[in-house]
Amino acid sequence: MASHIVGYPRMGPKRELKFALESFWDGKSSAEDLEKVSADLRASIWKQMSDAGIKYIPSNTFSYYDQVLDTTAMLGAVPSRYNWSGTEIGFSTYFSMARGNASVPAMEMTKWFDTNYHFIVPELGPDVKFSYSSHKAVNEYKEAKSLGIDTVPVLVGPVSYLLLSKPAKGVEKKFPILSLLDKILPVYKEVIGELKAAGASWIQFDEPTLVLDLDSHQLESFTKAYAELESSLSGINVIIETYFADVPAAAFKTLTSLPGVAGFGFDLVRGSKTLDLIKSEFPSGKTLFAGVVDGRNIWANDLDASLITLQSLEGIVGKDKLVVSTSCSLLHTAVDLVNEPKLDKEIKSWLAFAAQKIVEVDALAKALIGKKNEEFFSANSAAQASRKSSPRVNNEAVQKAAAALKGSDHRRATNVSARLDAQQKKLNLPILPTTTIGSFPQTIELRRVRREYKANKISEEEYISSIKEEINKVVKLQEDLDIDVLVHGEPERNDMVEYFGEQLSGFAFTANGWVQSYGSRCVKPPIIYGDVSRPKPMTVFWSTAAQSMTKRPMKGMLTGPVTILNWSFVRNDQPRFETCYQIALAIKDEVEDLEKAGITVIQIDEAALREGLPLRKAEHAFYLDWAVHSFRITNSGVQDTTQIHTHMCYSNFNDIIHSIIDMDADVITIENSRSDEKLLSVFREGVKYGAGIGPGVYDIHSPRIPSTEEIADRINKMLAVLETNILWVNPDCGLKTRKYGEVKPALENMVSAAKLLRTQL
Ligand code: GLN
Ligand code: ZN
């Protein structure tokens, strides 16, 4: 009986890699320093797995930035603008592709499936010359071997690599990227050859695209690729690893018929249907890597339940052909619970981070061969039981209220154009009203005030007066700039989800539960462990204080339920929508309290609505239905004269535009920095949009200050497609990462542009 880990977090338990990377990028430490920290991290991870008794330990799952970029480096597919020539890609070219350099911007980054991890998108075309240009996989294999640990080198599989690529600039959009298979396979063969020569007996190809909606041509590419690799792969055992969902029936057939493959890995947590496919048609003689330990969440495994699943699989594939594994790489979970001394003991007993998941995998594998660690299993089942019955998890009133929402509908009684009329009577805004998205620059001083208040180093009075002073400054600035609808600037918030999570019941926070988002960036998602409720108002104090400082409308500023859900570790003991409905009810109470307190414009950010979209189209409708419903629940009870705004952090919503309209917000502001065309094309194609809309008129992700003319130009382009009376003028997103030196002139130009156009309309 054996155990396998698909992949492991690379940042380190205290984000050691992050700090080493950033210090290297800042020129504060050398390449050798960075390499040393990295080698130490790899060694300790391998040792940890080896000590735990894991049989198939992965290597090459470490990365200085991202494993897809590593594959681009392996293949030598460096876009020509980075001027690379040579034999082995070094840090300078590698990090230029990842982050750009003084003269060339970075390559594009996009989300890795439905996770919050982002990868660097390969740019390919007919002219790319592929050559073996990074020996990282082989080097890491040898490195582990020199430590006495025989590992399974992991490569992004050739077909998934191509399916995740995009045509390079200047290459036809329709360029058949899969036609490059013949050109990249020779490099894969070289890598395989070297790995074999170094002594590797297993190799893992990650082919997660197999869980997507693929057509028959795409599926055939898998057959073609592995047939082509078959002879190189003789003498080495191949695992094809899939994750994040179940493998659809046709893909399952293709996958399990691939020649020369010894074993297949499946996500049995998210891929519940895969179990049936395995039961009915798993090929005999092949090894099943059964991903029963969840790599996407922080919950302790229900070991008894997993054991039952594994025992039934044993009956199908045979005792010696079953390997216990994780559902996907542990990259997507937090690193080690050991570093959470302050976390509540009971809650802690319900959790398992990456380090603990390794132990779970091993314990399950041992239990299957009759070496069950009774103590470990009984502690686990006691924790499972306490989680089920704990009063901290269960709040009957909330459960009842949320259950009643299912199947119901919530809509404001009046349609949006009538509401906008009623609101305009009250607000009396000019055409092309100007506003911002919420946050203003977060200064070092502000962070200090928040930190010291949290640590009880300054009194509540001191804290309140500092924050009020800051709000006052931001209000005065906006009045001076002559912005029409103001914000308070969010100085009291460290993070738009954490701020609410800290005030809601049912949320826990970690000290070191970081998960890599991209490059050196990590996020620390809150843990939703129980029924969610709002003990008391969360934002009314600050919003009313801010409103009292100005006669102009001050936006109440909330994070929406779907975004709170999508940016947290969520419960696995109830469906996502149920948790979302609970959060929606809490936010609804807040919206209504703000309205009662005299706030007439309320923004409910749904920055991450799109992020929760399931991987396969067939499941989109169900998700969008409850997500949009949750948003409407928050504000369906307000008066016509209360104006509800929402904000979204992406422009690509062409495919979900009808759901966005169905949110029935009065005004939506959206990121639009990179392409007016894409966003506007939706409306040009005839989609009717009657609510207010503010496509961002400048990119806040860059320090660049846009000129009045440039902004006016963009607004004009929007006016060509959208009705004058629904268009709002605002930046792309919140301003918290910018400096005042950038924000002031940019907003000045934005307001001038709006005023200029008003005179021309
Ligand atoms: N109101 C938030 C802010 O301005 C929105 C942030 C976001 O969309 N990510 O910071
Ligand atoms: Zn945003």
Automatic annotation (TrEMBL):
GO molecular function, one term: methionine synthase activity
Keywords: Amino-acid biosynthesis, Metal-binding, Methionine biosynthesis, Methyltransferase, Transferase, Zinc
Positions annotated as active site in the UniProt record: H701 (proton donor)
UniProt: Zn(2+) 1 binding residues: H647, C649, E671, C733
One Pfam family per UniProt: Meth_synt_2
Cofactor(s) annotated in UniProt: Zn(2+)
Name listed for the protein in its UniProt record: 5-methyltetrahydropteroyltriglutamate--homocysteine S-methyltransferase
Organism for this UniProt entry: Dorcoceras hygrometricum
Upper classification of the organism: Eukaryota, Viridiplantae, Streptophyta, Embryophyta, Tracheophyta
